[in-house]
Amino acid sequence: MQDLLRRYGPGLTLIMGLMVAFWLLMLVIIPNMTLFEQSFRPYLPVREVGGPNDTYSLDNYLKVFDGTIERSFLGFTFQIPVHVLTFWLTIWYSMVVTVICFFMAYPLAYYMAKIVNPRSLPTLILLLFIPLWVSEVLRAFAWWIILAFRGPLNWLLLNLGLIEDPIRWTNMGYTGVVIGLIYTYVLFMLFPIYNAIQSLDTNQIEAAEDLGAPWWKIHWRIVLPHSKPGIAAGSVMVFMLSAGSLLVPSILGSTTSQWFTQTINQWFNDALDWNTASAYAFLLLLLCTLFVSLAMWVFRVKLSDIAK
Amino acid sequence: MNFRGTSQTMSAGIDLENVCCDFGTFRAVDNANVSIRPGEFFSFLGPSGCGKTTILRMVSGFIEPTQGVIRIGGEDVRGKRPNQRPTALIFQNLALFPLMPIWENITFGLEVRGVDKASRRKRAEELLQLVDLPGAAEKMVSQLSGGQKQRVAIARALAVEPQVMLLDEPLSALDLKLRQHMRAELRAIQQRTGVTFIYITHDQGEALAMSDRVGVMSQGRIQQIADPREIYNNPVNGFVASFVGENNIFKGEVQQAADGMASFSTPHGTFRARLGDLGGRDGKLYVRPEHTVISVAAEAENSVPVTITDVSFEGNFITVHATGDSGIHLTAEIRNDGSATMPDRGTRAYMAFDPARAAILPDANVRG
Q: How confident is the model at residue B2 (pLDDT cuts 50, 70, 90)?
């Protein structure tokens, strides 16, 4: 603050301080606090708002446990509340997306950081970025077309002789959603890992090889441990963005796929019950944060590593 | 996994036969021929960019020669990756693994070979003993000083029991005192283990002090291969003479040659000196400052009248700079035996040299 004052004078410092305060207060704190406060109040007709029935409770949060359905998994049959199931499937498939993104991004990141000729790197990065210039909606629809029953993917697989009958990709549970999310968020995995690997001294890779290590051992003992912060950062981003995505599940989802964000959206826009919707939104945020913290603890990653 | 101790077994010789290495149109190594004996401490000495590191990387397998054959222990190693060669490379920046404790660093090569953890741990202690660093096993790389890291790097390379150790200027990051200490240490480890050492350096003092033989390189070509004394006392060309020490240099022409001696006519007088192998090229006369003497009266031959311009006291010797009457700048070094007197600036004197200590040599052996 002292530094700012000395460098820019009181006038400019005041303006900057006010702008930061505006950002934090108006765009972050007030909207979230409003929703947070609402999430504890019942959904009432307008004239009862502020009346004797308008009291704080956890009822909205407990609604996730309403409406159990029967499911069987690995031979066990059990009763599970439908929204809890949606939540777990959202977490599970977000994890699947994260893991697949990692396996796609890591080799490419390594290639970009250590193998490719530095002169062709800008071209490569440009090629990777071009799809990002197109709106996310268009990209999701593009995949909708690619995955269509008479779409190009089925045509290709049929002509290659890999399948005998076309496949209904977008009607196979979460397949469409997972493909769409991977495509949308894989770069968020690629670049943190690329940065991490790039900072690895190439001599270390050569030293390991010189000491007799085969390629997989070099990756397992040298490159992967070094790039762990990058992998963690990428994973957190891909996981959170996937779990929080509404657009991709809405466009590429099937009749049997439900994303938790869609449930929240239904409370907001179909039921018009903003109170319950807020409660669900905070549940998603809280549980995802808990889940990520747990994963970071398991993999022994510190928050400060990721911030780098 | 017994350590070899003082035995001279297991080390391999290395032969480079007509080895060339091109990077695009640039020839980094040009027709290198050298035969390094098993158990020898061999140094490649040269300025940066002379191709010495390229030779090292070809021997270790990170670069394949464009032409020629490299043999390690008589076996052609063409197409073999670094992890299939009996060599261990010590990198200039050491390239220790910062995320592993010291003992895992040292035994990484054994881990790769599937040695169980208990034996690896035991071996790490033995090697730490060998490099005089006991008790560091559990430390992390970042906790060690420069010299200690150096020892860990040596231990890590020795752990895989290489037949050849390749060292890429490993001492360049250390300060002067430590560097001199590690020189002796490296030499001692080499003699204790009997492994062939190939040492890369641009520091002539290092190369001369440590090596059995030295290969001096310039612009991709090996200029001279000989033991350190021979390199210093009888350099084959001007590049070698200048790279390993200081010289007074006279330009001129060879007049009469007989019995390996020649008279050499220069604008500063005609001198007699040993005649090197000029190979049809022009030569210059080289004489080292410590072989140049100062006298009050003119000597019978090889004497130049000068005016002393500067005198600097260096401790173990005194450097005297002078300008000849014909304009040439000459330097003489007087050994400080405790009674040496310093001549005054501006004094008229003669600088002279023994014909046997001066040589007429061609410039460097480069493409032309």
A: very low
Q: Is residue A2 part of a domain?
A: no
Q: Span B19-32, mean pLDDT?
A: 93
Residue B168 lies in a domain: yes
Q: Please name the residue of chain A whose CA is at the shortest distance from the CA of residue B63.
A: A206
Are residues B83 and B138 located together in one domain of the fold?
Answer: yes
Q: Which of B63, B87, B90, B91 to mutate to test the interface with A (most CBs of A within 10 A)?
A: B91
Of B238, B273, B296, which marks where a domain is finished? B238
Give, in order, the Cα–Cα distances in Å from A172 to each of A182, A262, B359.
16, 18, 88
Structure tokens at B300: 């019978």
Q: Is A211 on the interface with B (CB under 8 A)?
A: yes
A196 contact partners, CB below 8 Å, separation of at least 6: A109, A226, A227, A228, A229, A230, A231
ipTM of the prediction: 0.81
Question: Which CATH number does the domain housing residue B250 bear?
Answer: 2.40.50.140
Question: Does the beta-carbon distance from A214 to B88 stay under 8 Å?
Answer: no
Domain span at B117: 14-238
Residue B197: which of B47, B124, B89 has the closest Cα?
B89
CATH number reported for the structural domain that contains residue A98 in this entry: 1.10.3720.10
Judge whether A213 is closer than 8 Å to chain B, CB to CB: yes
CB contact under 8 Å between B93 and A213, yes or no, is: no
Kindly tell me if the per-residue pLDDT of B310 is higher than 80: yes
CB pair distance less than 8 Å for B160 and A212: yes
Residue B1 confidence (pLDDT): 37
Q: Is A208 on the interface with B (CB under 8 A)?
A: yes
Give me the number of domains chain A comprises.
1
Q: Which of B89, B97, B160 to mutate to test the interface with A (most CBs of A within 10 A)?
A: B97
Q: pLDDT by residue (tens digit) across B104-127? A: 999 999 999 999 999 999 999 999
* Among B191, B213, B238, residue at a domain's last position: B238
